[in-house]
Amino acid sequence: MPSRNNPTGRDNEITRITIRVFAIDGRILEVIEESFCTDTLRTIPLSSVELKPPISSSRRRSPRCLHGAWEVGPQLGEGTYFRVFRARPSQGGFSGWDFALKTIRPEFKGDRLLSERLIREAEAGAEITSAHVVPVIDARPGSFVVMPRVWGQTLSEILASGRSIPLGTAVWAARQLAQGLSTTHELGWIHGDVKPDNIILSQTGHATLIDLGFAQRVQLNLPCSSRKCDRQGTLRYLPPEMLSRSAPVLPQADTYSLGVILFELITGRQLFNQSTTEEIVRAQLSQRAPNVRCLVAHVPGSLDTLVAKMLAKDPLRRPSPDDALVKALAAVEIELLSPDPKMRDAA
């Protein structure tokens, strides 16, 4: 059938396609047809590919894109709307897959809202400079973004494994994330989707926030009814104000989400364990969060009070500014390192 890349419709005239075969020890894993500059990336059956001897690395062709050239490797992961692939620059002698390229799934290509999310992610990731927030180093507006790969495990993977996290480590991770959010807010952004899936802990304990897809600019002078308010995200970690159209979304929204995560790290349980969407929304809006000290006896009173403030239903009652939260978490870290035997055991 005639198309933009094949006006005559004859199969033998399709020439601008790169075929890459991923194999280990001679066993073919998958064949991918790549053409990012025409927004095409799909898996094709082996039967339709004529396999030839490998092309030397010096002759390998890589997809050229608007803001640079990236060689795309095997898939790292995928969500409902996006896929993430290993990537590396096609020039410069890079041998490792040290970057990640995020793009819209083929079946959602052309979706305006998803394109806008990628554009916001590119803008936020280019502006935010923090050791605890993954940057965006390249992008094709509305098509893909490129980030450094962050090595480690997501917090959700750690929690799912059943491994207990020492109290001192939990507070340390929360303090790092609060530092990253502080920089994000100072630059006029809200992360909007702080959750365990979007937090990576390295082997040395370094915490990094990823996925700025729900990032939105702070606009305190406009009510949500007259501006774009992205109130999507993961329900269990959304603050009450993001479940209501009448309340503005402030930077303290991220503080609430971080408080939910810290609650889970300390107690080993979900803040609200309701199973249906309606029940979770009702609990987020009206149910008081339990005190962590009632569930874990050795938690110091200062940390119990701090978590309760982070989980306040009213965003103006949460710790603010962000520096105050960072200092409060640092004070708890110091307290957990005190000579008191109870504190040493807790840490």
**Element order: H for helix, E for strand:** EEEEEEEHEEEHHEEEEHHHHHH
**Within the CATH hierarchy, at the fold level, what is the topology of the largest domain?**
Transferase(Phosphotransferase), domain 1
Q: Tally the helices: what do you get? A: 9
- By CATH, the superfamily of the largest domain comes out as Transferase(Phosphotransferase) domain 1
Helix coverage percent of residues?
A: 25-40%
> How are the strands of the largest sheet arranged?
4-5-6-7-9-8
Span between termini: 66 Å
Rg (C-alpha, Å): 23 Å
Number of strands: 14
What is the CATH class name of the largest domain?
Mainly Alpha
Short description:
The chain is α+β, with helices and mostly antiparallel strands. It is built from 9 helices and 14 strands. The longest helix is centred in the middle third of the chain and has 20 residues, at 167-186.
Task: Kindly describe this structure.
There is one protein chain. This protein is an alpha+beta fold. The chain folds into two domains: 16-148, 2-Layer Sandwich (Phosphorylase Kinase, domain 1), CATH 3.30.200.20; 153-346, Transferase(Phosphotransferase), domain 1. 30% of the residues lie in helices and 19% in strands. It is built from nine helices and 14 strands. The protein has helices at 112-127, 155-160, 167-186, 252-267, 277-286, 292-295, 301-310, 322-336, 341-346, and strands at residues 18-24, 27-35, 40-43, 64-65, 68-78, 82-89, 99-104, 138-140, 144-148, 153-154, 189-190, 199-201, 207-209, 216-217. The chain has a six-stranded antiparallel sheet with strand order 4-5-6-7-9-8, with helices on one face. Helix 3 (167-186) packs antiparallel against helix 4 (252-267), helix 3 packs antiparallel against helix 8 (322-336) and helix 4 crosses helix 7 (301-310). The protein is globular. The N and C termini lie far apart (66 Å).
